[in-house]
Amino acid sequence: MKNNTFYTKQTLKHFRHPHNYGMIKNPDGIGEAGNLICGDLMSLYIKVKKIPLKKGLVKEIIDDIKFKTYGCAAAIATSSVITDLVKGKTIEEALKISKNDIINILKGLPPIKVHCSVLAIDALNEAIYQYLIRNKKPIPEELQKTHKRIELGKKTIKKRYQDYLQSQRRAI
């Protein structure tokens, strides 16, 4: 692609026919992420399956993953791609997936849309964080930092929304 201001064929394919769209009943983790500037909102749902190994050990894999996204073509496409990348992976493997992995599968994103791949990663990290919290499992330090950053962003979005609503009430 010579000019990276348009969506690639792969991005449009995932946008028009997203994989794993929907919700999971009784998910093991739900991750929500949003962007104040563009207004995109993502919710990612995971179901974790425990596979018995030798000597009483258990391997946990993300057996099912679905998403609901309110946003542009890039937001929907990156949500679709992350579900493909994560399904069947262990928690540890899923945490290693990066925005570049998503962008590479889509064969690029316009620079102004790269933040959508970050939202997809954030939603995944939040779903995993929620799963680990619910199951009283140790949370990697990097995931704790990511969670704090995402929570701060959510508080900022909520505050700005509340401020906006108050200004609209005063204007009436």
Give the proportion of residues in helices.
40-55%
SSE string, helices as H and strands as E: HEEEHHHHH
Percent strand: 15-25%
Overall average pLDDT: 91
CATH architecture: Alpha-Beta Complex
Instruction: Determine the number of helices (DSSP H or I, runs of at least 4 residues).
Output: 6
Structural class: alpha+beta
The main β sheet shows up as: 3 strands, antiparallel
Structural Rg: 17 Å
Number of structural units classed as domains:
1
- Strand order across the largest sheet: 1-2-3
* Number of distinct beta strands: 3
Low-confidence segments, given as residue ranges, are: none
Task: Report what the structure shows.
- By secondary structure, the chain is of the alpha+beta class.
- It has a single domain (9-171), classed as Alpha-Beta Complex (Sufe protein. Chain: A).
- It is 50% helix and 18% strand.
- It has six helices and three strands.
- It has helices spanning 9-16, 73-86, 91-95, 99-105, 114-134, 141-171; strands at 29-34, 41-52, 58-70.
- Strands 1-2-3 form a three-stranded antiparallel sheet.
- The longest helix has 31 residues, at 141-171.
- It is globular, with a radius of gyration of 17 Å.
- It starts with 8 loop residues before the first helix and ends with a helix.
- The model has no long low-confidence stretch (mean pLDDT 91).
Secondary structure blueprint with pairings:
Layout: H1 9-16, E1 29-34, E2 41-52, E3 58-70, H2 73-86, H3 91-95, H4 99-105, H5 114-134, H6 141-171
Antiparallel strand pairs: 1-2, 2-3
Helix pairs in contact: 1-2, 2-5, 4-5, 5-6
